[in-house]
């Protein structure tokens, strides 16, 4: 059902509608792929708003998910798209709340695929107006017991959400606060020195010492999988190392999630031929010491997962060295940045030269139960982060674990 249109800064009407995606396979999925890909070419959305991610996400949705397509049109042209799933939750076991979740399902296992840089896929010519219009349209239709769950937002999307809250009288609670850190490769080039030259003295020494020790084993090799089969083989090896290191710390690791491997095997098979998925392997003397699962989108590299062969000799830093080699490779390719994304890891502040907040928000009518729930989640998040920091070392915690 279409409601009262909002307008952009030029006064043009932006019509928004939300319709159930009753079928998300076969011809219906093919048709949505065309519409989504057409807008994607006119938008500046992140990898997590690309059809490569969204299409496979839709194809593997849990049976209980009820996806709805949010569509914004301006002069009859699609200028905004997003997928929302409704989910009923009970606050403190007593209060019924209907949640509308942006590119999430409410299924705790499936959602551990972990979307970041989230928002509305919007035509770049009207991006702010479209995002604000879509969120306001949703916000105006929230009842007293409804809320909008907006996870892993970009800065622009969070700004739009906060504007909408002010316009509608709703409140915004931060469910989880985090920070993304990355290497701005343009800044490295402007400095006129090598990437390593800009690292802290102790970090640079640790990287160089680790590289020297590995080379003494018979050479060091950095390789990017060139075929789908090679990439899938490396992904399986990454899983082995990843799970071993996490289980050694008493954690389950990302691959314990039953949704993780099927989704990413599909993503790898589709993304490797185009270069959107980059599986990197680092070997010393012919033996693998590290694997990186990276995503490449609009000249930006995002590190999603890794697996490293840790040893008793703590002078050997397989994770740190693998990332440095990947960063240097990206620098040589002329790419813009190497992004560690939001999950905390010991290497991030050592290797990054830029950062920004990334938050998980709840938007809805102000209620005491929502404020109490947000406070509880924040407290729980602080405690969990304290535990993680004590265990972190050089290994990045598992996205989706």
Structure, described:
- The protein has 401 residues and is of the alpha+beta class.
- The protein has helices at 26-41, 51-59, 127-140, 155-168, 185-191, 201-215, 228-248, 260-271, 318-333, 348-351, 368-391; strands at 6-7, 13-20, 68-74, 77-91, 95-102, 121-122, 146-150, 171-184, 220-224, 277-284, 287-297, 300-308, 337-339, 354-364.
- Strands 1, 2, 3, 4, 5, 6, 7, 8, 9, 10, 11, 12, 13 and 14 form a 14-stranded mixed beta sheet that branches.
- Helix 2 (51-59) packs across helix 8 (260-271) and helix 7 packs antiparallel against helix 8.
- The longest helix is centred in the C-terminal third of the chain and has 24 residues, at 368-391.
- The chain is globular and about 65 Å long.
- The two termini are 38 Å apart.
- Residues 383-398 have low confidence and may be disordered.
What's the quick description here?
With 401 residues, this protein is α+β, with helices and mostly antiparallel strands. Helices cover 38% and strands 27% of the residues.
How would you spell out the order of helices and strands?
Answer: EEHHEEEEHEHEHHEHHEEEHEHEH
- Multimeric organization: single chain
Q: Would you count the extended β strands for me? A: 14
User: What number is the mean pLDDT?
Assistant: 89
- The outline comes out as globular
What radius of gyration results from the CA coordinates? 22 Å
Helix count equals: 11
Beta-strand percentage range: 25-35%
Largest sheet: 14 strands, mixed
Q: How helix-rich are the residues, as a percent range?
A: 25-40%
Cα(first) to Cα(last) distance is 38 Å
Q: Which consecutive residue ranges, at least 5 long each, have pLDDT under 50?
A: 383-398
Structural class: alpha+beta
């Amino acid at each position: 059902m279409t409601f009262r249109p909002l307008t952009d800064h030029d006064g043009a009407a932006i019509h928004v509608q939300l319709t159930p995606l009753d079928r998300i396979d076969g011809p219906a999925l093919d048709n949505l792929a065309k519409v989504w890909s057409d807008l994607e070419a006119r938008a500046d959305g992140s990898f997590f708003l690309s059809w490569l991610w969204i299409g496979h996400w839709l194809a593997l949705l849990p049976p209980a998910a009820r996806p709805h397509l949010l569509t914004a049109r301006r002069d009859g042209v699609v200028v905004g798209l997003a997928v929302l799933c409704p989910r009923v939750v009970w606050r403190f076991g007593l209060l019924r709340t209907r949640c509308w979740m942006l590119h999430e399902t409410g299924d705790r296992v499936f959602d551990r695929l972990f979307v970041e840089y989230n928002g509305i896929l919007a035509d770049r010519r009207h991006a702010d107006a479209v995002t604000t219009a879509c969120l306001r349209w949703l916000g105006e239709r929230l009842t007293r017991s409804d809320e909008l769950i907006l996870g892993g937002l970009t800065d622009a999307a969070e700004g739009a959400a906060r504007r909408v809250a002010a316009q509608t009288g709703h409140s915004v609670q931060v469910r989880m606060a985090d920070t993304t850190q990355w290497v701005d490769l343009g800044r490295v080039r402007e400095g006129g020195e090598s990437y390593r030259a800009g690292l802290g003295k102790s970090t640079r020494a640790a990287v160089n010492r680790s590289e020297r020790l590995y080379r003494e084993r018979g050479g060091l090799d950095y390789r990017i999988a060139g075929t789908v089969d090679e990439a899938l083989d490396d992904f399986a090896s990454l899983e082995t190392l990843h799970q071993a290191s996490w289980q050694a710390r008493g954690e389950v690791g990302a691959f314990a999630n039953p949704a993780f491997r099927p989704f990413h095997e599909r993503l790898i098979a589709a993304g490797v031929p185009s270069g959107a998925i980059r599986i990197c392997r680092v070997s010393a003397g012919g033996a693998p010491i590290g694997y990186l699962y990276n995503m490449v989108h609009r000249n930006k590299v995002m590190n999603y997962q890794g697996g490293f062969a840790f040893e008793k000799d703590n002078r050997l830093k397989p994770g740190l060295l693998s990332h440095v080699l990947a960063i240097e490779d990206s620098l040589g390719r002329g790419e813009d940045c190497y992004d560690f994304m939001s999950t905390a890891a010991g290497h991030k502040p050592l290797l990054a030269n830029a950062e920004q907040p990334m938050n998980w928000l709840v938007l809805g009518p102000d209620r005491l139960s929502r404020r109490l729930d947000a406070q509880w989640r924040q407290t729980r998040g602080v405690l969990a982060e304290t535990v993680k920091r004590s265990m972190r070392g050089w290994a990045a915690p598992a996205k989706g674990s």
